Structures are given as C-alpha cells and as structure tokens.
C-alpha cells in the first residue's frame, strides 16, 4: 500500500461524522453554456496565454505541429495515433517516448511534448490530462506542450467536465489552462515558472 493510501485509510478510520455530497443540480441548471463551443474555447484559451488551432479536413497533424514549433528538436510524444475527420493519423514527429528515459530528470531539455487531452472546458480554456505514462513530469518539464483534443470532447463548464474525468491506471490527472504563469515575485508576470512556456491545443 502506498503512503497516499495509508493517509486516506487513516482519515477514513478517524472520520466520525460523514456528510452527503451537496446537491448541485440548481447550480448546474444556471451554469454557462455556449452555442459555438470551438469558438468559445479558442477565445478563452487565447486570453489565458495559449492558443487553439483547428485541424482542417485533409490536413496532416504532424506538419501542423512542425509549422507551429519549427525550432523543436527533442520532442516527446505520449500519443501514437489520433482519429481525425480524414481518418487515423500516426504521430510521427515525436523523437522519443517519455517512458524511454530512466528517470524524470532525464526529460529536462525537452523542447516539446505531445499529449492527449481528454476533456476541454469552454468557460475557462482548461483541458483535462489523464496520466498515460509513468514519467508524468513530461506534462510540466517540457518547454512547450501540444495537446491533441477531439473537438467532440469540448464541454461547456466545470460541472460537465467533472462528470467525465478519470485518473486512469496511474491515479493522476490535471487540468491545464494555457502556459504556466506566476506573478508572485514583484507582481511581474513570468511565463513557464512551473510548467510549459507555451501551450497549443489542436482540435481534431
């Protein structure tokens, strides 16, 4: 049993009063919805510092990635293939798989990581990344992040998103909304402090 499970078990054993989860149905009925999810998501992710690009029918996703990040040389790819309007496309522009390295520190110097997005949220531009590899540092240590997301998996708000997320076999997932940023030091905005300096979501 992991230390995480030890802690959770201790909490469960020592919890004397249990409360039912609150009924959020009234809030869900008032939650924001959007007619054009692609346009809304694209607009919001731009506001938070990222960008969304719609893959056009017949367009090669590998060529699109190379066009957006022409300087990227060391490219980690979690994804082997994607389903597009034109059919299945293999992801061939990656130069290695994150789990090919022995330890997470070996991922330092990764120019670009190509990862699989599960759910995109239109109200805040966040994308749910479910851990698909052992070396989850790849989601944060790379200089740039390309998230491949089926546009059918765009949802209006976080209420809808939470009903659809999972943590998979590794038990971990994270919402990413644009590049990493902080303004804690002297109120000066710094990009890439805790993660990627650049985030592009390609809507398939």
Concise structural overview:
With 204 residues, the chain is of the alpha/beta class. It is 22% helix and 24% strand.
Description:
The structure is a single chain. By secondary structure, this protein is an alpha/beta fold. The protein has helices spanning 3-13, 25-30, 37-47, 61-68, 138-141, 158-162, and strands spanning 51-54, 75-77, 81-84, 87-90, 112-116, 119-121, 127-130, 144-149, 154-155, 173-176, 181-182, 190-191, 198-203. The chain has a 5-stranded parallel sheet with strand order 1-13-8-5-2. Strands 9-6-7-10 form a 4-stranded mixed sheet. A two-stranded antiparallel ribbon has the order 3-4. The longest helix has 11 residues, at 3-13. It starts with a helix and ends with a strand. The mean pLDDT is 92.
Low-pLDDT segments: none
Number of strands: 13
| Proportion of residues in helical segments | 10-25%
Total of helices: 6
């Amino acid at each position: 049993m992991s230390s995480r499970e030890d802690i959770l078990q201790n909490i469960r054993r020592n919890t004397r009063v249990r409360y039912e989860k609150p009924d959020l149905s009234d809030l869900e009925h008032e939650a924001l919805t959007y007619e054009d999810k692609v346009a809304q998501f694209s607009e919001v992710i731009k506001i938070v510092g990222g960008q969304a690009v719609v893959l056009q029918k017949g367009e090669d996703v590998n060529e699109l990635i190379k066009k957006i990040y022409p300087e990227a040389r060391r490219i980690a790819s979690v994804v082997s293939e994607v389903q597009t309007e034109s059919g299945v496309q293999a992801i061939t522009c990656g130069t290695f798989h994150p789990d090919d390295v022995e330890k997470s520190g070996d991922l330092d110097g990764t120019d670009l990581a190509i990862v699989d997005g599960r759910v995109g949220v239109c109200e805040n531009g966040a994308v749910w990344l479910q851990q698909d590899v052992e070396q989850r540092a790849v989601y944060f240590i790379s200089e740039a992040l390309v998230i491949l997301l089926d546009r059918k998996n765009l949802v209006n708000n976080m209420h809808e998103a939470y009903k659809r997320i999972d943590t998979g076999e590794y038990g971990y997932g994270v919402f990413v909304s644009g590049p990493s940023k902080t303004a804690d030091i002297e109120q000066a905005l710094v990009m890439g402090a805790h993660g990627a300096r650049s985030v592009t979501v390609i809507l398939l």
